[in-house]
Fold this sequence. Notes:
By secondary structure, the chain is of the alpha+beta class. It is built from 3 helices and 15 strands. It has one domain.
Amino acid sequence: MSSFSIVSGLFLTWGVLQSGEGKCPAPPVFSAATYFAERYVVGTKVKYKCENGFLRKAGISNLITCEIQSGLARWTWNKPPGCHAMSELTHGSTEQPSTKNCEGSSNHCQPTTQQITDGLCRVPQPLRHATANVVAYQVGQKLVYRCLAGDEGPFVSTCEDVGGKETWSSFTLRCTHGSNMTEVLRSDTTPVTNEPAKPSPTSGTVLSTPVWVMILVLSRIATGRAC
């Protein structure tokens, strides 16, 4: 796995997902781990969100979709996405959208040095002044989870259709925080944190106040009966 794939995969953040036929809900998110995708299945939709101070042109959605064209999986759009400075839009002159290694002026953009033959789209190219958000994960999509600290992993979670319901396949990941803390991450439950055990008392048994009161009452009752 190349560092470019990891960095580019992390560049994508999941957005608000719409549940529906063939689409999975938002993937599990953990503070101690991250996830990324190396490839995207056909039907995946990604939307570029402009940074503060930049806007898309009216009538341009900045939405791209992984589709099959001429037998190859490519990212496609109706109009080239772009984010422009507000001042440029106001004065009528706009900077051309910037994506790296695009194929001329066509409506798809992929690294020209890669052969795309596996029916999957590569990580979308960065767009200047924008961040990319996945808005629809399709059945068959694989996400790679890895701890931010520690060597366990990676683990792969897949968007599956189980009895007509789309869901992410389950997994368990143990992520270590330092040497005394381990967080158990389960994709189908709330993360459980295992804290180090507290030391037991060094001597004697400490009784709580209610226990002492009960002993005192019983003692007085016994003394009264003896008299």
